[in-house]
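Priority: medium. Attachment 1 of 2:
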């Protein structure tokens, strides 16, 4: 008799992500470091200087750190985050990227048969996390006809009709970059008062005049008896530390305690913990990056519009562009050492997603697109 996994595992899909496909570039004979990567929605300017400087100078201390198990409580990083956010340490859980926390939330709260609502197109790991637990999905599909804007009245109706055990809201949404107002999000939260709401704010640092969600999770007197909101954020995106994997969740102590029960021991490595503490202290660096990214995005929007490829409205550091055949468009740019995100895996085979980089790099992208289009 063959050994079989749980039935749910056979339905789990492999989620595609932005970033370099190392097997692909090896086959093409391209060195990964030679590629300009517009496919990953990261801060393109690298980690804060203090991170690389400190880690490069403290050889002896780093050797000591590496040779021991990391702090399983991630206490000092949580404390730094708590001080920055104005919350209690007990309200924070740090993960090996926010994607780990997505899976922990699903494992902690969803059982086979529990319905979960996701709003598509969106980050594919929500679906994967639900498939792992055997939770069937209710999907609200957004349309390009209105710029992928979310009709919250439809969302509320779906919640009332299906009573899902959980809801994932990505804000700003990936891959569309659309940003939901606080008033609209509160409509969803009010309708879902008895269910877990996961608000994924991985890209919120790149939104102008973003509203704060933490009081909804922790301090709102209107929700004093509720503890149904989990806010997720990504230090990977903000501080360009994708290789170290850092994300965190903020919620009432009850939710955090439940996630901690199933969190793997030592889930955040010692170097990542140290780098996170340093990065948090360099807030000015992040502000400077935000200014440069906004300038680069404005340049890309203007240039692409002039080429007949106007980006869809986006409040984030990335946007969608309709190019016809996305896989082919991506392949042609990759031949020129430039990578964009083919959005076929989002169900959008005619779109690519482009994330802003430095202005000179954006100029190279525009030159390459002109070559591809024969301009």
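Attachment 2 of 2:
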């Amino acid at each position: 008799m063959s050994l079989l996994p749980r039935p749910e595992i056979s339905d789990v899909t492999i989620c595609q992500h932005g970033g370099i496909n190392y097997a692909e570039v090896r086959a093409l004979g391209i060195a990964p470091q030679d590629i300009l990567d517009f496919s990953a929605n990261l801060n393109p300017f690298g980690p804060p200087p203090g991170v690389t400087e400190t880690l490069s100078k403290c050889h002896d201390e780093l050797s000591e750190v590496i040779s021991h198990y990391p702090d399983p409580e991630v206490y000092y990083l949580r404390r730094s985050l708590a001080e920055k956010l104005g919350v209690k340490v007990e309200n924070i859980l740090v993960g090996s990227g926010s994607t780990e926390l997505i899976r922990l939330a699903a494992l902690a709260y969803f059982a086979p048969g529990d319905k979960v609502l996701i709003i598509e197109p969106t980050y594919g790991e929500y679906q994967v996390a639900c498939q792992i637990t055997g939770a069937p999905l209710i999907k609200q599909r957004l349309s390009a006809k209105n710029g992928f804007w979310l009709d919250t009245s439809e969302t509320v109706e779906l919640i009332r009709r299906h009573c899902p055990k959980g809801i994932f809201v990505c804000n700003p949404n990936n891959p569309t970059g659309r940003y939901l107002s606080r008033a609209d999000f509160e409509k969803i939260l009010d309708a879902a008062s008895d269910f877990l709401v996961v608000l994924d704010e991985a890209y919120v640092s790149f939104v102008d005049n973003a509203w704060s969600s933490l009081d909804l999770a922790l301090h709102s007197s209107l929700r004093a008896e509720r503890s149904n909101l989990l806010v997720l954020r990504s230090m990977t995106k903000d501080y360009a530390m994708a290789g170290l994997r850092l994300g965190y969740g903020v919620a009432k102590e009850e939710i955090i305690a439940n996630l901690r029960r199933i969190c793997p021991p030592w889930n955040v490595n010692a170097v990542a913990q140290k780098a996170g503490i340093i990065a948090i202290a360099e807030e000015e660096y992040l502000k400077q990056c935000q200014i440069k990214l906004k300038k680069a995005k404005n340049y890309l929007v203007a240039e692409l519009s002039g080429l007949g490829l106007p980006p869809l409205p986006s409040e984030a550091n990335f946007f969608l562009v309709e190019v016809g055949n996305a896989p082919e468009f991506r392949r042609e740019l990759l031949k020129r050492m430039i990578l964009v995100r083919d959005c076929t895996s989002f169900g959008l085979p005619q779109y690519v997603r482009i994330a802003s980089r430095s202005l000179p790099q954006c100029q190279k992208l525009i030159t390459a697109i002109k070559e591809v289009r024969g301009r």
